[in-house]
Known about the structure:
Four Helix Bundle (Hemerythrin (Met), subunit A), two-stranded antiparallel ribbon
Amino acid sequence: xxxxxxxxxFVLFIISGNLSAQIKIENTKGYSPQIxxxxxxxxxxxxxxxxxxxxxxxxxxDYLLDENANRIxxxxxxxxxxxxxxxxxxxxxxxxNRKEKKKWMTALTLGEEAREKYKGKPIQYYMKxxxxxxxxxLENLKTKDDAxxxxxxxxxxxNYYWAWFHVMEHQANHMGQIALIKxxxxxx
Length: 188
């Protein structure tokens, strides 16, 4: 018989000079226990990214580290596109349809086309898109239970828990890229 952990807390102490903070991953009300913890982690990552970029000006939002890099605004819409893809994959067991491909594929794949398309808009523009995608994620997760997380999709051996873990690790990777880019931006 498999035992499912229904409640857990991770505690991390951050000490930097006089700064000391405690951060917890807890079950989010309105969700089953494991999904509630997943929601807590998704929201924590998004919140950390948002706090890091919320005050970017246009130059910072559009800054290119080099000719092969991505702008911070493009990375934010890329995170929204990735999350939208995994919504379809996990909640509807499908890939993007034609209309969704037109909307999301440039953001999903990034590259030269994205470097040209995703510039000239304030960081809030990109965050609003991600907020809308996240609202849909949270609404759909309310309809699922912990057993659903362990289900495997019909096309491969990936369970839905791993899929959403991947969304989080993807966000964490780009959080690091964004931090690096912000450090490299030179104010004149």
